[in-house]
Amino acid sequence: MPFLVLLLTTGLVFLALDAVMLSTVMRPLFERHLGEGLLDGLRLGPAILFYLLYMGGVMYFVSLPALRADAPTQALINGAILGLVAYGTYELTSYAVMRDWHVSMAAVDMCWGAVLTGVSAWCGVMAARAIG
């Protein structure tokens, strides 16, 4: 039961926070720099695959070890590191190879990846600890 609470809480917090950030900050930022190069809608398949793959990584590398160690702060810190690395890999590669990619897009998204992943992992561990 704690694993299910850990997974669901982490995933729901991640999705909810990311939906707000994507719609209010990231979409306008990307539209400003990519313009017509940005899709009008979302490719749902790749988005779902990203979230499933990423949640698997967060669970394996961050949340489960922190829960086993009874260390929510470990989830926050290691989640932030994983988020920075993962989002940084995408953003810095995109900035290195794409003409219209802008440094502000990379910087904002890398910071967001660190905050989002750390907070989501921490919330998941806290919820799993609370139930048992």
From TrEMBL:
Membrane-spanning ranges: 43-63, 75-97, 103-128
Domain of life of the source: Bacteria
Keyword Transmembrane: yes
One matching Pfam family: DUF2177
UniProt keyword Transmembrane, yes or no: yes
Keywords: Membrane, Transmembrane, Transmembrane helix
UniProt protein name: Uncharacterized membrane protein
Species for this entry: Tropicimonas sediminicola
